[in-house]
Amino acid sequence: MKNLINVDSLTDIVSNSVGILIIFAVINLIHDNNKTYELEIPIEHETDLRPAYIISKDDRLLLLDTEQVFENAAQQASNGASAGKRIFELGYEGLFAQLDQDKGISFHARVTDNWPKFTELSKNGSDLQKQLDSIDPNQYFAYFFVYDETSLGSTAGSGYESFRTARNYLKARRIKSGWQPVNSEFPPSICDLSFSSNCRYLPSFLASDTGSP
Amino acid sequence: MANRASRYARYLPQEKLEISLFPFLSIFLCVMGVLSFINILSSVSAPQKIQLTMELEQGYKVAFQIFTLPDGMIVLPPVNRLQELQKVVSDQDKAELAFIILNRQRLIDQVMASQANPANSARAPDTEDVLEWMYEIRKINEMALQANFLYEEFVLFGVYPNGGQAYQKVRSVMSNSIDAQNISVGLEPLDANWSLSLHNQGAK
To answer: Which parts of the chain span the membrane according to its record (chain A) (predicted)?
Structure first.
């Protein structure tokens, strides 16, 4: 009965396979350390398209409904809440706002818990997908305000990953996108170019993408 | 006969092979575990080398690289193709270009001196410096255009986490500079564990 179970051949196969795997792992390790990744850098271009603003923070994305935002801001301003560059509650997705003649309207994103996570972009039919799909590439490009502040233990800005994912998602739908880094010192702001030369929102793309709308 | 043989065999002393596989398997699994752990650890913590390049279709466009960090910024201006440009421009431009190359080489040398940790060479953005770089880029682009030399410099920002402040300051200076108005700009977010590849920055 004992002769029926022979572990020798099994051990032989297992040790050989694992040995090869270890060699692969070591080669992979050495190879990985010498790998250099090359990034393609999109360049900003002038455009006739209008920006659709998106705030990217804490791995979450918020597509701003500018009409609603301006309406709420105007209402607060008429109540005197925005006087003296005071930060006031905008009543829109947890955003606070500040009005300034040079910077226009600045947004302070303090609570982002209700914003959709960027991972929802991988779920078919999610609200975030629907929102981004609603951007018409013939009229609009997506402009991201990307928070560059890091959370504890993270190697990227809190909005980097969500921005990259959303940018790829939009690129696949031929929607152009541009971005700028923002933080609590330099919050996202929407202003008119006629007030300040800093108020430029341009899409960035590669020369090979110019054929798309 | 067969019956007798089998009865005889029953009384033969059995040779038991007492080999325990446990120590072998235990050492084996330990080695595997340690190696897997090192592999996972290195893939998570080892910095990736990033070389910022542009696409081939814009091969004549060359990046004036500015990396913005929490402590300031690192500037890596291009010099290699300027020596080719120097051969085709007027004598007056040649002298100016030589001065620009010298200035840029000095900047590169500062970064190369701290190649082990380029972040050490980061410094706060200085308005005068930024304005001078913009002037140089505009001048070079004009020289190349006049000499019909396929070469155009653009400003490329690599924005590291918490590097937005330095970026905003440089862009603010640029937006008020007449020289910067026709200069193209590219920008890309970089993770903190993406290290710069400096091997292609030395002058030929």
So the answer is: 13-30
**Is residue A181 within 8 Å of A146, Cβ to Cβ?**
yes
Is B17 contained in some domain? no
Nearest to A179 by CA among A144, A149, A206, A148: A144
Task: For an interface test with A, give the residue of B17, B37, B190 to mutate (most A CBs within 10 A).
Answer: B190
Q: List the domain range (segments joined by +) for residue B138.
A: 54-196
Rounded CA separation A150/B164 (Å): 11
Q: Dihedral of CA B66/B67/B72/B75: which sign?
A: negative
pLDDT at position B146? 92
Q: Say whether B187 and A179 touch across the interface (CB within 8 A).
A: yes
Q: What is the count of residue pairs from A and B with beta carbons less than 8 Å apart?
A: 139
CB contact under 8 A, B175 and A200: yes
Q: If you measure CA to CA, which chain A residue comes closest to B158?
A: A41
A27 is a domain residue: no
CB contact under 8 A, A37 and B63: no
Task: Count up the domains in chain B and report the number.
Answer: 1
Classify residue A8: in a domain, yes or no. no
With an 8 Å Cβ cutoff, are B51 and A22 in contact?
A: no
pTM (2 decimals)? 0.78
| Binary contact (B187, A204; C-beta < 8 A) | yes
A193: closest chain B residue by CA: B175
Residues A157, A146 contacting (CB under 8 angstroms) = yes
* β partners of residue A204: A44, A177
More confident residue, B13 or B162: B162
Q: Which of B15, B156, B168 is best to mutate for the A interface (most A CBs within 10 A)?
A: B168
pLDDT tens column, B123-174: 888 899 999 999 999 999 999 999 999 999 999 898 999 999 999 999 999 9
- Would you say residue A56 has pLDDT above 80? yes
Using CA coordinates, name the residue in chain A closest to B177: A197
In chain B, what percentage of residues exceed pLDDT 70? Answer: 75
CB distance B159 to B66 below 8 Å: no
pLDDT tens-digit map of A152-168: 667 777 889 999 999 99
